[in-house]
Amino acid sequence: MHPLKTPISGKSDRITRRGSSIVNSTEHTPLSRDFVYSLHHNFKSCLLYGKNNVGVANGEHPAVKGYLSLHKSYEGVISLRWTPNQLMHASSQPSSATGKESEQQWLWKQALSIDMEDIIYIHLHQRDDSSPSTLTLVNCDGVQCPPLQMTAGQHSLVFLTSLEAGLAPTHRLDPPLWGGPGKEKSLPRLRKRTSCAVGSGAMLDYVFRIVRIGGGEFLAESCQQDDKSPSPTTSQRTRARWKS
């Protein structure tokens, strides 16, 4: 855990990471808009991808729209961040409204900060390019992160293309995205169509793994691999990590 200090109105605010979320540990201090923007745009990392109005549904709460970004540090570490729109647009001026502070505290608990080196599976669910899509990241413990809900279009493909470019040259997606010199990337053809009857179409499911190029699928730390491939939807603790 690496706390971040935020100067607001002459005071230091402390942001800590709990699980896959970053939360504000100061209960009655207003948020700084400059600090929120610095989470997504700063000189310490290169912005690989950014998109607004990406929905995240955490638990039984309705989906919240927010800004999604993908970063690669100069040390090669890739991170994913998502912040609710209300925090992106929050005023840096002090607010005495208890209800407003309570809402911001709840929103900070929804914010995501994920180290992609902890992720080994990415699930993509989409009917077609004219339909919304959902991306679900699964970490090495089999725990699913809150699904990222993209609007209709090729937004998930653009995200995966940016991620694949950021993973190079040491890692890649398996299966890789299709494409050649001078050609746009496209989703791989499904060997086995996984469909769920939804309306008049079928939901297409893709499962991508993050694998190391030129040396085994994962860098495992003292883990016993079963004969069968580990299921990304179980809680089996594989302790597998990929490193840049």
From TrEMBL:
Signal peptide: none annotated. Transmembrane segments: none annotated. It comes from the Eukaryota. Gene3D superfamilies: 2.30.29.230. CDD domains: PH_RUTBC. Pfam families: PH_RBD (PF12068). The keyword Cell wall biogenesis/degradation does not apply. Keywords: GTPase activation. Residues 47-187 form the Small G protein signalling modulator 1/2 Rab-binding domain. GO terms for molecular function: GTPase activator activity. InterPro entries: SGSM1/2, SGSM1/2_RBD. Residues 1-25, 222-244 are annotated as: Disordered. This is Small G protein signalling modulator 1/2 Rab-binding domain-containing protein. It comes from Ancylostoma ceylanicum.
